[in-house]
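Suppose a colleague, Dr. K., hands you the sequence of a protein chain of 267 amino acids and asks what its three-dimensional shape might be. Before reaching for any lab equipment, you can write down a predicted structure in token form. Begin with the sequence itself:
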Amino acid sequence: MNSNLRNGKTIGSFLAAKKDEVRNREISGLENYVKARKEKGKKILYFIQYWGASHKDSLDKYDYESLFNLFGLLRVIEKQYKMEVHLTVIFTDSHVLLNGYKQEIFKKYYKELKTILNEFNYSHILMSEILMPFIRQHRMKDINDLIISIIDRSKINEVSTYVQNNHSFELLKNSASKHSYRYSNNQIFGDLRFDTTEQSAYAYIELNQLEKHFVEKNYSQSVFLTYTSDDEKELIAPNLPSLQIYSFRKGIRSRPWFSYFNKEEKK
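The predicted structure, expressed as tokens, is then:
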């Protein structure tokens, strides 16, 4: 794959934030993180990134480009700070199930991603595995039980005034209208459907709040890499140093799992 981004020579060439103050803040946060690691005698920098899924059952050009841009960024960081870099990609199967996509499809997609990550000696884990302590504590069988309970609560719990008036919530509602299969095709989901974008967004926030707790606990020494903007991050991103990065080409931070190189493959 040809990618100008993955050959970037500076960390800034991979960053997607448009405002200089945001970019400067993110680079400053990274430098503070590196400095703290060095002061403790640590030799490894840890990074995490979420990776979702949709109807794709295999990787396409956008996925490969996004992965290689990600790897390019890590190489630049490794070279600049002269420290080993470790990446863990968290497959957000929980989000995929909440959106209503089929397990047999996204498992194939994730299998191909795992192969690429293994080839580059990077790690991966399912979000459902990270949430397993909570699932067991509440005597649920698996991640599907948790998703069902969140969907049920989204229909009876009122969204707080703060959330309703939050710009981030409006962005999540807009995202739900595009990507929540459980909303856009709700007639096939019976009681496990979303009747409104508000329900879908509220459920997504509740799930993310739970995930934030466990991700922050398990990856407290990591930097969060994301395609999410500042406005979107407020209600859903873990409270960790973060870098907003481009996906498959400069100027684009669209999530590759929702982007189809061949539009005809989208069902």
